[in-house]
Amino acid sequence: MKRFFYVVFVLLLTAAVPLVGFFALKTPKADAADTAKGLAALARFDSVDVAKVDSKLKAIEQKRLEALEKENRRLRLDEMMKLIDAGKLSYRKVLKNVYIAGDSLMEGLEAYDILNSNHIFAQVSASLSHLEENFDKIVSIRPPVLILHYGLNMIAEDEAHLNTFIQKYTSIIERLQKKLPDTRIVISLLFPVDRSAAKAPRFGAIKNYNKRLREMCETLGIEALDSAPAFQENGSFTTRYYGADGIHLSASFYRNVWLKHVIRSLEIGV
User: Fold this and answer.
1) What is the pLDDT of residues 87-100, one digit of tens each?
2) CATH assignment at residue 104
3) What is the pTM of this model?
4) Closest among 106, 146, 151 to 124, alpha carbons compared
5) How far, rounded to the nearest angstrom, does the alpha carbon of residue 179 sit from its chain's CA centroid?
6) Three-state SS at 149
7) What is the pLDDT of residues 67-85, one digit of tens each?
C-alpha cells in the first residue's frame, strides 16, 4: 500500500514540474513584452521636439486671442454705431484724428456740415494737382489718419493715361510717407457711379483704375478702402443715394452709410 502511494506521489510530482517551469518561463516573457512597449513609448517621447510643440501651442493660443480681440472690436463698433444713431456720439468726435483730401465726393462731407472743415481738403473737379497744392499744408498738420480720394476726374479709357495717373499718385504718396512716417495713409478706391453716368465710356474704366490702385497700395504698404459694399442693399447695387448726375451723393449717404463703412472698415475709434 505504501508503495502504491509512493508511486502516485512520484507521478504527481513529475507532472507538476513542467507546469511550474511553464509558469516560471511565461511570466518573465510577459514582463519583457510590457517593458519593451514602455521603452518604445519613451523613445517616441524622446524624439519629440519640445520647442516645436511649444511653438504650435503658442500659435494656437495666439489665434484664439486674435479671434477674441476681433470679436471684441466688432462689439465695440456695434455699440458705437448705436450711439451715433441715437445722437449721443458725433462723427466729429469719432473721426477727430481723421483728415480727408480729394475731389467733390469728399467735399460733400464739408458741404453737408458732417465733419469739421479744417479736416477736409477737397475741391470740385480736383485732380492730383490739388493734392500737390495742399501737400505742405497736410504735412504741417501731421494727421494721424489721412484718407485720399482722387482719380474720378482724371479717369480715361486708354491705358497710357492710367499708367501716368498711377505713377504720379505713387510719387506723391512716397513723398508723404517720408514726411509723415507715423501717419496712417489710406487710399479710397473710386466710388461707383449710377447707371446713367456709367453710360459715359470713360467711367467704364473705374474697375480697372481700382485694380491698379489696389496694386499701388500693396506696393507702398498702405491700406485701400473699398467703398463698393456701401452701395449694396440686400445684395444689389442701390442708386437711391445718387443725385441727378449719377455721380454725386446725398447727405444721408455720408451720414447713414459711408462714414459708418469707413469706421468699420478701418476700425476707427476702437
Assistant:
1) 999 999 999 999 99
2) 3.40.50.1110
3) 0.77
4) 106
5) 26
6) strand
7) 877 788 888 999 999 999 9
The dihedral region occupied by 193, where left means phi > 0, alpha psi between -120 and 50, and beta the remainder, is: beta
Alpha-carbon distance 270 to 267, whole Å? Answer: 6
- Please say whether the beta carbons of 138 and 160 come within 8 A: no
Long-range CB contacts (within 8 A, 24+) of 160-163: 162/205, 162/208, 162/209, 162/212
Query: Does 110 share its domain with 208?
Result: yes
157-192 residue pLDDT tens: 999 999 999 999 999 999 999 999 999 999 999 999
Residues 121, 199 share a domain: yes
How many beta carbons lie within 10 A of that of residue 270, not counting itself?
16
Query: Letter for the amino acid at 267?
Result: E
Contact assessment for residue 140 and residue 114, using Cβ atoms and an 8 Å cutoff: no
Q: Which amino acid is at 181?
A: P
Can you give the residue range of the structural domain that contains 37? Answer: 2-48
Q: Under DSSP, is residue 11 helix (H, G, I), strand (E, B) or coil?
A: helix
Indicate the number of domains in the chain: 3
Judged on CB neighbours under 10 Å (0-12, 13-18, 19+), 193 is buried
Among the residues of 86-183, which ranges form H helices?
91-94, 104-111, 128-133, 135-141, 159-179
